[in-house]
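protien #1 (seq + structre)
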Amino acid sequence: MNKIAKIAKGILIIALTGAILLLSDLNNRNKETKQKKRIPSGLSAEPNRIYRMGLAYFAPEASFEQLHKGLFDGLKALGFFRDKNLEVKEQHVNGEIGNFHTLLQNFDNLSLDVIVPTSTPGVTSACAAVKNTPVAFTYTYDPIAAGAGTSYTDHLPNISGVGSFPPVKKTFELIKTLFPEAKTIGTIYNSSEANSRKVISVAEEILQAMNLTLRKTTVVNSNEVIQAIQVLVSQQIDVLWITGDNTAMQGFDAIAGTAAKANIPVIINDVDLIGQGALAAVGIGWYATGYHSAQLIARVMNGEDPSEIPIENFVTEQIVFNPELVKKYAITLPDSLNEEDKKPYRISGKKYALALAHYVDSPNSEAVEKGILQGLADMGLTANHDYTLKILNAQGDVSTLNSIAESLKNETYDLIFTSSSPTIQVISKKITDTPVVFSAVGDPVAAGIAESREMHRDNITGISTMSDFVGMLAMVKDLLPEAKTLGTVYIPGEVNSVSYVKHFEAACKNAGMTLIKAPASNATEIMDAANSLISKGVDGVCQISDNLTASSFASIITVTEKAGIPTFSFISSQVDQGSVAAVARDFQQAGYDAAMKAGKILSGTNPKTIPWDYVSKTIIRVNPENAKKYGISVPQKYRDSSHKEKETVEPHKIAFLHFMSSRDCSDTEEGFREGLALAGWEEKKDFVLEIYNAQSEIAMLSSITAAIAMHNFDLIVSNVAPPAQALAQQITNVPQIFTIVADPVGSGLGKSYTDHLPHVTGIDGLADTDAGVALVLECLPKTKTIGTLLYPGETGPVKTLKALQASCKNHGITLEIVTVNTQAEVADAINTLCRKEIDAILQIPDNVSITSFSYIVKTAKKMQKPLFCFISEQVRMGAIAGATGDYTEQGKEAAALAIKILNGQNPAEIPFQSLKAPRIVINCKAAREFGVMLPATLLQSADEKIAE
């Protein structure tokens, strides 16, 4: 029995020892697990993880709202989406500093990933109250004075963040510059705030050296602000300076209003409040600070130890003026301020993500885009440095426009521009939380986005381009005094077109004239509608402005010129296409005006408070040569502002014809312009370039080709096979250069690259299928079968397919092919292809799949078939990678050919050229979405990386 007891006792000791060891090991494992969770994973949000943040702030006020917006915009850009993968506990202390401690203690017990205290009192309280949770602060002047540490590198181990000490010296230098006679500066601050005490201390030292006096009034809470400002203005101060004191900011409206009544200018250190009664602001843009702070907060949420992150000081040092108050105080801004400082809006401190959505390519949309870019540049924003601009075009297809709106909704943008009524109508239904600025919208009320200029959708404002119908009729009466009946083509499916024709009809009635209307629903009906007007005996065609007739104007002018009926326009560029005269809203100015609206929004103004406006400029153009064709005598008042008489040396006239809109076609055009510029050729002086686009419609292509034939061009340049073929066959007396034609010989442009049509030369666009297949195998080494769609209606895709078949055979790969004959068949075709046993899709380029590529991307992602291509824009749209042509360079090469030809060389003597070695473009985000791990060697060697 004793032996059994001893054995049992021994077993019990062993069991207890084992349990202790097991528990100890479990504890160690738990520690290891916790340590693994704290391994930093960078800036971006981790997939399939929910983050938890606590945000504590002083009280609701305008500066904090800007900081708040910038912070969450910055987090969104890093993949942290509130109420999706980011849970936010957000609470303020209603301006009571003593409540911060309790609030932060509560946050510390909620198992958060990070606590974000804002304002100096918030940071001070976090230093004492938070023990268990990492802290990343922002929106504070002096974190060291708040108790976060002894220096930016020597701070409390669980705390780091972003401080923003204001440019105090620069502020007083500006005051002295603007008001050299000023002697006394007044200010209000809360003496219990450490940040305010520190700023006032620094200010007193600076002002003493400048021989200026600072009169201070302290407050304890916002209830004392009104009395304090009344006392201060009674003390004969010359200028009022308000720094970022929390209490003063809460009562800023009262401060600014009282100062205005006393005629005392207000200078602040918060550029986001410039529109609330301050004359000027020097320093901190809190939106930019919030956006910048998002990166440090993301690092902490992803596991980086705050003790290893130095505190930062981040200030967007800007000088911003309120133009209305500059005028009120009769201030002439001195030359010592640079041009950037003199602008009413200065936007910096972050890289803005912007988008521009077009419905269709037209002279109007091109002009709007140009105006927007000019406006952004004039605000001091540089492309790819201060902002990115993604340009999307629905090519006149409503379903594509809906897809564009959906993609814009699902991506993160700071602001979206739109051109045309259809675009804003679709965008406004899908996007409600991102600022949208419209342009080229004739009637915002008829479009359903506004009730009046002031009453409109909360996130939308913009520029209306409603035509000057009364001004047009006055000009028509001057040029055609006997005219009684005018005609116009309109589009029943376009709300602005219907609105315009209604307004124009009323204007004609008031002027004692009759308007005959001819409807058209698509490009093929435009010419029939124009012929219908002619058959009804109109004295002139006065074409209203809308998307379809703008892009199909060549069809209208072909009919009217043949019939000897003069045409008048509401689009200025149509004067160069055959119109006698135009009374035009300047669409480039409309784009520019839209950019100015965007500037207000990006600098912190709520779009809800910004009325939409009419475009600020109208153009009257008359072409005396076109008028002469119809026996019209042009009065001198129009000659003074219209086309100049021919000079001795005229610029070369070049037509550039696109079959469709795509990034690669636009790159070719851009390269062509750049190539001419590099050769010293100046636009308007050495050459004029007329751009045409057939919008992928053969009927429109025929009309444009006929119009080009009538206008005596010196040279014609075209993109892709259909325009090159049409031009070569129908126009044989004008030199021509083609680009991006995969098979110029198969397209009938020659028997070989050296034996070709005498008036044609150019550069092919044959895809490098060997490089494409090699790229697929580099990403997916186990690939056995590749799929592609084939459009057999063009020789180029057929030739590319043969090359791809040979490339696949050389690599031992099977190629699956599904044919598609129209754009409508693409949806079924790509679904069929994806259901096949294929490892990847390598889409060869053709004019059908290009216009439907967004659907190909969507289906391939849905069915997880990795997608590769040969066009750079398609990589941007969502393909994993592509072996693509450098079409900007091809445009430059085409420009070199153009110069040779315009200088006298015969195209027959210039052999066709081949597309140069491909560029490898990869889309890292798309690769992740398809579950493809891009090899490190490819990441290092790629010519362009998208969405890293």
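ok now protien #2
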Amino acid sequence: MAGGVPEKLDLKKQLKYLYLPATKECSLVRVPAMQFAMIDGEVEPGVLPGDSEEFTSAVGALYGVSYTLKFMSKLRAENPIDYGVMALEGLWTTPEGGADFQMSDQWLWTLMIMQPDHITAAMFAAALDKLRAKYTKEKQDAALLDLMRLERFEEGSCVQVMHLGPYADEPATLARMAEFTAQKGYSFTGRHHEIYLGDPKTAKPENLKTVLRHPVVLA
């Protein structure tokens, strides 16, 4: 279709099994390859992620490029496609490896937002250029945009569950995941994965929804 009414793409409905799991029961899922806008960083020692300037700036940059891509896709002359911007996700580890943050005061992160398959490297580069121009006009530091990339990521076999409540209560949910994983004959591997379905700035802590996911291998 050239111009006209954009095609609607409902990624949240298509990927409901990955982005809206059950709260009471853990599940074993196979996560396919998808493409993401990504950026790496680390939280300063002794600082919570929400208080980290670099972390906050990275979140803003990811949403900025994601919404820019959405409107570029919706308004393009050939085959316009409209879709909802997906949730913010984070891959977490420590310099020692693993995800036991009680054993380390350094949190290494990869923040990312999933992008539809029709988003190309050329579109991504153009969106970054548009965002750089906006940052320059508003006298914001655009250096973080140079660290952003579009990359395919395949997580494979994972255990996941919906965590309901404050982030500080996640260890209890992670313990449930570890028990479920062991019962199924698997063990954790790779980086801890969180998908943020609530905004901690506006939602009450007890109402926050966070998908907790972890890659697994046969033990």
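The CA atoms of residues 121 and 150 lie 7 Å apart.
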